[in-house]
Amino acid sequence: MQLPHDLLEVSTPGDNQAPGYDVNDPNIVMSLRRGQAARILAQLTRVEETLNRLDSRGFGVCTSCGKDIDEILLKKDLTKDKCASCMESGENNCENNSE
Ligand SMILES: [Zn+2]
Do 31 and 4 have their domain in common? Predict the structure, then answer.
């Protein structure tokens, strides 16, 4: 016996399906992959910028104040383009918007 589609829908009273994302939903998987790809692309862009600075001998030099970036910071992250004090002041600027 075959039931018409609209009758099938009516015959399931109450919503037993939990709202949220289905991990098997290909659209969700795609958007997760897109997020991953965006992150990797952003990383690649930073590496490319670092390589450009190496070419122009600007590597290890703060792009804000022109001072040398601390070697310890560079060893942690070779793509760093700002010295410690500029990074700190940059962060402070974001937080202190009291004016
Ligand atoms: Zn600086």
Answer: yes
pTM, rounded to two decimals: 0.51
- Percent over 70 (pLDDT), the chain: 71
- Average pLDDT of the chain is 79
Rounded Cα–Cα distance for residues 64 and 83 (Å): 8
Please tell me the distance between residue 79's alpha carbon and the centre of ligand 1 in angstroms: 14
Ion ligand 1: residues, Cβ under 5 Å: 62, 64-65, 83, 86
Residues 38 and 86 in one domain: no
Separation of CA 94 and ligand 1 centre (Å): 16
Give the whole-angstrom CA distance, residue 14 versus residue 28: 25
